[in-house]
Design brief:
This protein is mainly α. The chain has 9 helices and no strands. It folds into 2 domains: 80 residues, RNA polymerase sigma factor, region 2, helix turn helix motif (Rna Polymerase Sigma Factor, Chain: A, Orthogonal Bundle); 95 residues, Arc Repressor Mutant, subunit A.
């Protein structure tokens, strides 16, 4: 049976009514999108494939929670995004910005880089959630505003505003951290 003209919402309804084999159509429609979200979080194909499988299990198990208030596309994207946020190693996002920045150097230079990494991670973790999400995806995953909007559901202008405000907060937090450490010396 050809399901190409059938809406996502109709497929969800039929799966919930017992036609569980039809869930394969959901996987077919969204496997590339979910895989690409996995690539953004994990940066390698093997982990992205594992991630996609986990997301589709979560989608299947949570299908009854889809109420149809938004398009299914946005619902499944949000499930994938939330799973990515929850499974990505939280400490690697901020640290990856400086991770390979000059591994050599004097012991003092390496110590200073480690302290900058630590301060940056603490500052990013201290951001309000909506800012942290936008900063993580924009700077640490290299996503465009439009891509972030597609994943989070935030309007592009909200994302721009959140990134701008997050940079201001980070600047203030990092200035405070550096000033405190300078005065301790």
């Amino acid at each position: 049976m050809n399901n190409h003209g059938v809406s996502d919402e109709e497929i969800v309804r039929r799966v919930l009514e017992g036609d569980v084999d039809l869930f394969a159509e959901i996987v077919r429609r969204y496997e590339k999108k979910v895989f690409n979200i996995g690539i953004m979080f994990f940066r390698n194909g093997d982990d992205a494939r594992d991630f996609a499988q986990e997301v589709f299990v979560r989608v299947y198990e949570g299908l009854a929670s889809f109420k149809g208030k938004s398009k299914f596309y946005f619902w499944i994207t949000r499930v994938a995004y939330n799973h990515g946020v929850n499974t990505a190693k939280r400490g690697t996002t901020a640290e990856s910005l400086l991770e390979h920045a000059g591994e050599d150097g004097t012991p003092d230079e390496r110590y200073e880089r480690d302290e900058i990494r630590r301060a940056l991670k603490i500052a990013v973790d201290a951001l309000p959630e909506q800012y942290r999400v936008c900063i993580d995806l924009y700077f640490f995953y290299g996503m465009s505003y439009a891509e972030i909007s597609g994943i989070t559901g935030y309007p592009v202008n909200t994302i721009k505003s959140n990134v701008f405000r997050a940079k201001q907060v980070l600047r203030d937090l990092l200035k405070g951290t550096i000033a405190e450490e300078y005065h301790e010396m």
